[in-house]
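Appendix B, example 12.
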Amino acid sequence: MNYKVTDGEQLRSRRCAVASATVIAAGALVAIDTGLIITAVAASTKVGYCRDGSADGETTCIVSTGNDFTLRGTMDVVFAVSYKGGEYDINDTAQTINVGASTLDILTVSIDEDAGVVGVATGVEVRINKPLF
């Protein structure tokens, strides 16, 4: 659950209200539920990126808008060249890029030659395919 921005001149963002008693880890993907920000899960249909997270007791967090940036994250399997350009979901627990699921297609793997290292699961470049706003 630790995505990092790798390409984006400026990360456009908004201050958003967080659901009560919700802790959001730094670098997490987030979703919206009843108008409040929560940690994204596999069923999330749109996501944003929360670079700094939100600690217990905090009422807001900063969430990305749009998708004019890329992130580096971890796949649930090791990277293969054939994954470039693929659209995938995330899993519930660790928010890894779920290569086995392509239902909601919220992330797209980069087509760049440096999109990932073959045989390594970490450091895979993705773009949010369906941003919150």
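Residues 70-128 form one domain. Residues 5 and 131 are 15 Å apart (CA to CA).
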